[in-house]
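Checked the freezer inventory, then went back to the computational side. Two predictions to log before the end of the day. The first one is the construct we discussed on Monday; recording sequence and tokens without edits.
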Amino acid sequence: MVWIVSGPSGSGKSTLVQRLLELPGMMLSVSCTTRPPRKTESDGKWYNFIEPEEFRQMVAQDEFLEYAQVFGKNWYGTPRKSLDEALAQKKDLVLEIDVQGALQVKAKLPGAKAIFVLPPSREDLERRLRARAQDSEDEIERRLERARQEILNYERYDFVIINDDLERAGREVQAIATGWRCRVDQKENRIREILKTFGG
């Protein structure tokens, strides 16, 4: 299964992705970006930081499941090789990407399931963005307007988590993935094996 997690900047989606990754059989897709790393970031953990020229070459060679330019500046993309690695390891792949990228992936992989993380209000999101102390006033306003535009796409997602309580939201994201794994079609081979022990 490919799990897509999206949400406005500051909604807490990275924390909820971490909760998903606590489940066995999950693997994070490491995105590529042309932006410079922040002080707290290291190459290869959440992002591979690459030069714009290398990014353009990867686009030309169709090496991305999805890619986009964010705020008219930096490019972000999900390498297709992440999906190949997850398939080889028989793991679920987790993508933390924006709405634009999510819609691209859903078009290419209709079976992927998308989770949208919502802040409880605009005021709460603004407070979180200011608490991070990473952005200028203009950048905060841009992020809030982008959040409004992203939220308008909520109906294109399979699940929504309102992140007003991080512990509950963490349990919900794990419950979504665990519940999906318990569907009959996901367990069919195991069911047949158990049925054989009863004589067929």
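The second is the one RB wanted added to the comparison set:
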Amino acid sequence: MLAGCTAALVADGWHVVVPSRRHAPIPANVPRQGPHPQALWVATDWSDPEVLADRAGRALGGPADLLVAWVHREYRVAVMKAVRPLLTPDAAVVEVHGSSHLDPQPTLPDHPTQQVVLGLVGEGESTRWLNHKEISAGVLAAVRRALSGRHPGVFQVGEAPLIVGS
């Protein structure tokens, strides 16, 4: 779902490692800057964060300056702790959350973090979930905020859903 964000980072000259269960290659027609920017898919699963970190670390070949993490809440802390040693000390972090799963504190508080909360899109009298393009654009905007040195914060993409209590 973040293929558009990944493609934009590659086009900007980033070496991107994508740990994921599913392979989603970046199209060959993405214009690239720099000597060898690319996106490498690493087959992995959140339920084994140590293997994920090991495979991602080997694919990175050195410390990472940016982490974009969209990990389900039940795996988030374990995965983030496992990949923390792969980051440079001042690496920017972008955490992506579903609308009902925002944690009040960043998972890696020692890194400047932009938290992205995914919401809904209003269409007339109904609403729908964000599509892949809207999600990628919102996460990429948060990445750009993080890389520009903006103060850590929460970035809402779409509208927050209305939650009705009992």
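For RB: The chain has a mean pLDDT of 85. The first helix runs from residue 3 to 11. Let me know if you want it refolded.
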